[in-house]
């Protein structure tokens, strides 16, 4: 696999797949630019070599072609500030106009293409569409790990039209940090799995049972485990058809000598709202008409103690409905514990993208853990042992 370190971009037009699927508010202002900042080293290397850059990305999930809400033109000014130069914009990602604009680029210049997903052919992995994209550059650079698990035209298929296929710094760092967790984790190794559904995390949990010493389970999936133990969960989110699966996971963990830590208590509410009435109850004792929305203080204490004694920590998924400030206490406390383990005990901590990354970044902890992944789903699939099309296309 060629990497940006080993390739000289002098005189080359680099067609770079980035993941600029960033959140925008109603004024089209970026509310979290983590994914953009992550690409600075790759783009800077290309420009410093004397190359030019054609950036391609998707934004959101447009259903019916070009949509103002999902136009990448909203990113032009912020990108110009980030890269300290005027970023040019092509109002289409294929076609003669885009080809001409790309051909006219001088060394050190950047061109941003319009949203790839304005064409349905992108997500279908259409070969003809990929070939049209390939006409814009001399070398293909994939730095979009967050979409590497999709066999889309720009993330995988386009690679076949380039002799030079190069792995960007974001992609490289994601793979290296995931491999560090999977292949050379220092012990004790603790995985923290949150989120709402066991079904979303079953494969990675099963794989981690062969690797971790401790498995902390939080978030909505804990209520399915409570059902499996015969507990009361009120109207909490759960998957009744996964109760037997939950039981089998607990049995597998015990057989492999993995310690499972579940919440000792829960903060529950009488309504799915930040302003709902709250009470703290023991696990499995949530009254009818109430639902668990966070872990309780005893759980925070227990989980924090386990994390503090760990030398490797993997965290994927929040402990509760962290979008509501009153039910973000558990998630924020886990973020605190992971930071302390990293800074005070020298633990290696990998935050597994998605909501966990948002929670850590929103708390201002992004630079106080070892690595924050930009790819939630992609990281999970990579750690499950699946081949990612976007990574395979670079080989």
Automatic annotation (TrEMBL):
Organism per entry: Flectobacillus roseus
PANTHER family: PHOSPHOGLYCERATE KINASE (PTHR11406), PHOSPHOGLYCERATE KINASE 1, CHLOROPLASTIC-RELATED (PTHR11406:SF23)
UniProt keyword annotations, A-Z: ATP-binding, Cytoplasm, Glycolysis, Kinase, Nucleotide-binding, Transferase
Membrane-spanning parts: none
Binding site for ATP: 201, 292, 323, 353-356
Group of enzyme by EC: transferase
Source organism superkingdom: Bacteria
Entry's family note: Belongs to the phosphoglycerate kinase family.
A Pfam family per the record: PGK
Complexes and interactors: Monomer.
EC code(s) of this entry: 2.7.2.3
Organismal lineage: Bacteria, Pseudomonadati, Bacteroidota, Cytophagia, Cytophagales
Pathway participation: Carbohydrate degradation; glycolysis; pyruvate from D-glyceraldehyde 3-phosphate: step 2/5
Gene name of the record: pgk
Protein name per its UniProtKB record: Phosphoglycerate kinase
Subcellular location: Cytoplasm
GO MF terms, alphabetically ordered: phosphoglycerate kinase activity
Catalytic activity: (2R)-3-phosphoglycerate + ATP = (2R)-3-phospho-glyceroyl phosphate + ADP
Binding positions (substrate): 19-21, 35, 58-61, 117, 150
CDD domains cross-referenced by the UniProt entry: Phosphoglycerate_kinase
């Amino acid at each position: 696999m060629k990497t940006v370190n080993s390739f000289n971009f002098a005189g080359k037009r680099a067609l770079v797949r980035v993941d600029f699927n960033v959140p925008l508010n109603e004024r089209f202002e970026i509310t979290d630019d983590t994914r953009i900042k992550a690409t600075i080293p790759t783009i800077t290397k290309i420009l410093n070599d004397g190359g030019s850059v054609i950036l391609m990305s998707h934004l959101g999930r447009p259903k019916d072609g070009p949509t103002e809400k999902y136009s990448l033109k909203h990113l032009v000014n912020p990108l110009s500030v980030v890269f300290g130069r005027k970023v040019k914009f092509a109002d289409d990602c294929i076609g003669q106009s885009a080809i001409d604009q790309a051909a006219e680029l001088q060394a050190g210049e950047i061109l941003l293409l319009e949203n790839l997903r304005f064409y349905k052919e992108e997500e279908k992995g259409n070969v003809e569409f990929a070939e049209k994209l390939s006409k814009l550059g001399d070398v293909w650079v994939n730095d979009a790990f967050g979409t590497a698990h999709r066999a889309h035209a720009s993330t995988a298929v386009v690679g076949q039209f380039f002799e030079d296929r190069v792995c960007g710094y974001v992609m490289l760092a994601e793979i290296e940090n995931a491999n560090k967790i999977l292949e050379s984790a220092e012990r004790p190794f603790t995985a923290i799995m949150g989120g709402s559904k066991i079904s979303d995390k079953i494969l990675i949990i099963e794989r981690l049972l062969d690797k971790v010493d401790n498995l902390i389970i939080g978030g909505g999936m804990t209520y399915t485990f409570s059902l499996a133990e015969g507990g009361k969960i009120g109207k909490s989110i759960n998957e009744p058809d996964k109760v037997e699966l939950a039981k089998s996971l607990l049995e597998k963990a015990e057989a492999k000598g993995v310690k499972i830590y579940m919440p000792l208590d829960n903060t529950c509410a009488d309504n799915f709202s930040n302003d709902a009435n709250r009470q703290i109850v023991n696990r499995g004792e949530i009254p009818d008409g109430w639902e668990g929305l966070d872990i309780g203080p005893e759980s925070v204490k227990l989980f924090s103690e386990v994390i503090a004694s760990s030398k490797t920590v993997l965290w994927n998924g929040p402990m509760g409905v962290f979008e509501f400030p009153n039910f973000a206490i558990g998630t924020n406390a886990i973020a605190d514990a992971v930071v302390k383990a990293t800074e005070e005990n020298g633990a290696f901590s990998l935050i597994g993208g998605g909501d966990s990354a948002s929670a850590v970044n929103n708390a201002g902890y992004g630079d106080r853990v070892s690595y924050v992944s930009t790819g939630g789903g992609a990281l999970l699939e990579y750690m499950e042992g699946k081949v990612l099309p976007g990574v395979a296309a670079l080989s």
